[in-house]
């Protein structure tokens, strides 16, 4: 998103355009009116990544327009980023300006913050990191009261922790989430809470089991587990699986089994195409699945996974790409109908949006 797109005065109009687009995409399926969940107008983004551009003897925070890697756009502040990131930006810049050890061959800075106030800064270098760098980074971490990760080719040095811990409120309960450096997390914490609350409410109190595909770090797993007898959750990313397991333990959630399988592999397992050693100790036949929850990547569900979801009474689907969501619904529309839908404005001032639908068997 460019600075020129940031225009809080136009926020309501932009959100209305997104709603109209979602309504148009879901119109062939006679979907009900979408519930709309707004974003804060500024300071909503908990992550930010900047390249550093050297000019006039110093390095500046920079981004680039799509398709142009040669014309930097400099930033001294970033109003869509969290207040914590904006407070840290000038202090970090002053630190590398004052230290040749910190600034030498520094080419990228990444910020990861939380609603609860924690911060982690990743500093990326085109040179080896040594003891002198680590000593300077330790002083910087103490001064800024942050965690720091230093990255160079083949090396990673952690000062403090390599994750932040978020706290999110869902249906009157607080959940704690470890969010590792480098792993995917929802960027808009306030809207993420609204998504979790909506999914929790829409799933309802069930007396059967839930299958969750693409569970990530357990973002949805934790609150949804409180609504069902037990959960079988899958995720392919090793770092996300490790974070999810830690989050389940930290929150005392004991009715979830998590397996490191892709959605395609789980489809094969449930269809008894072949066995998987990673499912050792899990009796798939013991589950009484009534619902499936999916939060796939932008490409949506592949046709086989889409067919797998057809066997469930309820399909709760969160999508970061309404076009592929509509394509998946089209495949399922002969057996399932959209009974609830929602728009979550995770990315204000862009064309991107998150959408949620509940598909119920006809």
TrEMBL record:
GO cellular component: cytosol
Pfam families reported in the protein's UniProt record: tRNA_U5-meth_tr (PF05958)
Stated family: Belongs to the class I-like SAM-binding methyltransferase superfamily. RNA M5U methyltransferase family. TrmA subfamily.
Name of the molecule in the record: tRNA/tmRNA (uracil-C(5))-methyltransferase
Keyword RNA-binding (UniProt): no
Keywords, alphabetical: Methyltransferase, S-adenosyl-L-methionine, Transferase, tRNA processing
Gene Ontology molecular functions: rRNA binding; tRNA (uracil(54)-C5)-methyltransferase activity, S-adenosyl methionine-dependent; tRNA binding
